[in-house]
Specification:
Blueprint lengths: L1 E10 L3 H13 L2 H4 L2 E5 L37 H7 L3 H7 L6 H14 L4 E4 L3 E9 L2 E9 L4 E9 L19 E3 L3 H5 L9 E5 L3 H13 L4 E5 L12 H4 L6 H7 L2 H10 L10 H16 L5 E4 L2 E9 L2 E8 L5 E6 L1 E4 L9 H10 L21 E4 L4 H4 L9 H14 L12 H4 L2 E4 L4
Parallel strand pairs: 1-2, 1-6, 1-16, 2-3, 6-15, 7-14, 8-9, 8-14, 9-10
Antiparallel strand pairs: 4-5, 5-6, 11-12, 12-13
Protein name: L-lysine N6-monooxygenase MbtG
Keywords: FAD, Flavoprotein, Monooxygenase, NADP, Oxidoreductase
Cofactor: FAD
């Protein structure tokens, strides 16, 4: 069993911790940067891996990349990525502020491979994070991985996002019959287009619509039905007034607001991110349904204002029990596979909840600098990214605030940093561990 000893461990090599790594490279002293490790459970980097479809676009301007709003002169900007890869002229000629999702994913890969000092390790699945105590003080964290290795660190940053939400009525379906949006591209590619004749998509927002449209194209013999609780699909609320709430500067106002004001803002802005669709996709789906009706077909359909009360496997079929919210009537809908555009849990990720329980916290709270509120005796720090909508606003889970947020976290890290090497980790001899310090180059 191998143990590493670092000052800062960042879990997850997604946009949040990549932005943090860049901010460290640009703002922090060498000894902190060279004692930072980013770990990723996958063996590569991909943005929105489960829905990395070739025609999908970001809904956010390319200027809201990992660095530009914090440091417009940074070498890690999206524009410099285009320049470095010889694609700047083509992107400018495309005439859009919203790049294809595939291009953003490649930008993230480029950033990760360009970091000169922060180290990234791939294929490392975290299974537990535990507080490391010296007496009554929490002075660090012990992170355990699926390969039985460990990392001891003084400070930690979670950039893993929220856990996926699978409603309980679907939990008992066989794995090959139910597909969450986070695994769509991987699992659907294994299905036989000739064998799949009935697909049901549950959900009424962007991810559900993307799965519906992709399935309609990939399975030309299949009937594709979308089941949603709402009255129908709607565009994102993307007015310029609404978009001002995604400014990084809006975080201060939201954090200082009363709980009632925060709740009102989150409710009113819901359709700007979670409850709507990109206008182009909505228009494509509607036009296709129109053309089908015009030509006497009905392969693409929608069931609105309906709940899925139950889902059971019956032989080679999945049987969904639908309840009409208008009349209360119940009916069955049979299909071959169910695609879930049901989003993510509103709770903190399970690994964070387990850590809070080990510390003895009654609730998980963060301060303005995204640092978990710990007992006063704690000298270790824990930063939570992308899971603080309730206190930092709806943009917290989006790329809009990444550049500025990463700078704020680094500033907080430096303000409370103790000079010198990290505190000693657990006795390696007691557990038969081999201590490994990161190389200083």
């Amino acid at each position: 069993m191998k143990q590493q000893h670092v000052e800062l461990l960042a879990i997850g090599a997604g946009p949040a911790n990549l932005a943090l790594a860049v901010a460290l490279e640009e703002m922090a002293p060498d000894d902190l940067v060279e004692n930072t490790l980013v770990v990723e459970k996958n063996y590569d980097i991909a943005w929105q891996r489960g829905l990395l479809l070739p025609w999908t676009q970001s809904q956010v301007s390319f200027l809201k990349d990992l660095v530009t709003l914090r440091n417009p002169r940074s070498a890690y900007s999206f524009v410099n990525y285009l320049h470095a890869t010889g694609r700047l002229d083509e992107f400018v000629n495309l005439g859009t502020f919203t790049p294809y999702r595939l291009e953003i994913s490649r930008y993230l890969e480029w950033v990760a491979s360009s970091l000169p000092r922060v180290r990234l390790d791939y294929g490392r699945q975290v299974v537990a994070v535990e507080p490391f105590r010296e007496g009554d003080r929490i002075t660090g964290w012990l992170v355990r991985f699926a390969d039985e290795s460990t990392v001891h660190c003084r400070d930690i940053s979670f950039g893993i996002g929220r856990d996926r939400h699978v409603p309980e009525q679907f939990a008992q379906l066989p794995d090959e019959r139910v597909v969450h949006s986070t695994e769509f591209t991987a699992k659907v590619s294994r299905l036989d287009p000739a064998a799949v004749r009935r697909i049901v998509v549950v959900g009424g927002a962007q991810s559900a619509a993307e799965m519906l449209w992709a399935s309609y194209q990939q399975f030309p013999q299949a009937d594709c039905t979308m089941v949603m609780r709402s009255i129908g699909l709607d565009n994102y609320d993307s007015s310029k007034f609404t978009n001002e709430l995604f400014y990084p500067s809006s975080v201060d106002t939201f954090f200082a607001a009363s709980p009632e004001a925060r709740a009102q803002q989150l409710q009113e802005i819901h359709r700007s991110n979670y409850g709507g669709l990109a206008p182009g996709l909505l228009d494509s789906i509607y036009r296709e349904m129109y053309l089908e009706r015009l030509q006497g077909g009905r392969r693409l359909s929608m069931v609105t204002m309906t709940d899925v009360a139950d889902a059971q496997k019956d032989g080679d079929e999945v049987v969904l029990t639908l309840v009409d919210r208008r009349t209360g009537r119940t009916e069955e809908l049979r299909c071959d596979v169910v695609l879930l555009g049901t989003g993510f849990s509103k709770r903190m990720p399970a690994v964070v909840r387990d850590l809070a329980a080990a510390i003895g916290l009654d609730e998980i709270a963060v301060d303005r600098s995204y640092r978990m509120v710990l007992p006063e005796t704690a000298t270790a720090r824990c930063y939570l990214q992308g899971v603080n909508e309730a206190t930092h606003g709806i943009a917290d889970s989006l790329i809009s605030v990444l550049a500025v947020r990463s700078g704020e976290i680094v500033t907080d890290l430096l303000a409370g940093r103790h000079p010198g090497p990290p505190p000693a980790g657990p006795d390696p001899g007691a557990a038969g561990l081999l201590l490994e310090t990161l190389p200083q180059n």
